[in-house]
Write a structure and sequence with these properties.
It contains 12 helices and 6 strands. The radius of gyration is 21 Å and the shape is globular.
């Protein structure tokens, strides 16, 4: 039996949106006399995760915010509205502007030579990639990365056009089981309009682009370029930079196999992991 520990350390709600979200959950739960076990059951998670979210130590998944709005009368969707702010705070400061832009983008065009980009990673693949950096908040980073993918599934989804080197499919991340799940997810994206997945077959010749990059498009305003790198990525909005990235992406798309051929290649390589 779990005992509520009311003396445990809690985050100052003024410190961050993440801490504010947790504090609001705790205040409402205690005011209504709802236990953490009961809230966890409604949100399909355990007591421990509820406690960590309330103390501002873990990122709440969207389904947790939705459970709060169901269990707390008169919340009027408040926790779902707070959720995007809490989610963005889970990312490093330099990445938060990008996440805000990604959330409002109508289309994402991405290229990666070595890895599946975060927006298309499975939870297990993301965990394996992020673990290599030995972060102290691994699970929070995994949750934040996976929750970004909500933009691809909403009623009016952001369109993802993804171009990958064949090496991405053959570079084992985590384990064969992790790769099977990741390639199955890529197949799902490839077969789900409006998304497109293309693979550049490895024919022994390097195409010249070694840096991961992407272009974000919006209903209003010009495109923005995001370049991934170490130790951090950066955004470019200058017209010349956007034009250069747009041309580079068109050339990569021309080098890639067609969407149908790419799906066949993904399926073929996935059998090597069985």
């Amino acid at each position: 039996m779990t005992v509520e520990n009311e003396t445990e350390e809690t985050a100052d709600p003024a410190v961050s949106p993440l801490a504010h979200f947790g504090a609001e959950v705790r205040l409402e739960r205690e005011r209504l006399g709802i236990t953490r076990e009961a809230l966890g059951k409604e949100a399909c998670c355990g007591y421990s995760l509820v406690a960590k979210i309330e103390s501002g130590k873990r990122v709440p998944p969207l389904n947790f915010a939705e459970a709060c709005d169901r269990m707390f009368p008169h919340s009027n969707g408040r926790f779902v509205r707070l959720w995007p702010l809490a989610l963005r705070w889970a990312f490093p400061p330099w990445f938060r502007t990008y996440v805000e832009l990604e959330w409002t983008a109508t289309a994402l065009r991405m290229f990666h030579p070595q890895l599946v980009p975060g927006i298309a990673q499975t939870e297990d693949y993301a965990r394996a990639v992020l673990r290599t950096g030995r972060p102290t908040n691994l699970e929070a980073l995994v949750t934040a990365r996976v929750e970004r993918q909500r933009v691809l599934e909403r009623e009016q989804p952001t369109r993802l056009w993804l171009i990958l080197n064949e090496a991405v499919l053959r570079n084992t991340v985590g384990s064969e089981a992790v790769m099977r799940g990741q390639l199955a997810h890529l197949m799902h994206l490839a077969q789900t309009p409006p998304h497109v997945v293309q693979v550049i077959p490895d024919k022994g010749n390097h195409h010249g682009w070694a840096s991961p990059f992407g272009l974000l498009s919006f209903t209003e305003g010009t495109d923005v370029v995001h370049v991934d790198g170490f130790p951090r990525g950066y955004l470019l909005a200058d017209t010349d930079d956007v034009t250069t990235a747009d041309t580079a992406y068109d050339l990569l798309r021309a080098m890639a196999a067609s969407p149908n051929e790419s799906a066949e290649l993904i399926d073929s390589i996935s059998k090597d992991y069985s």
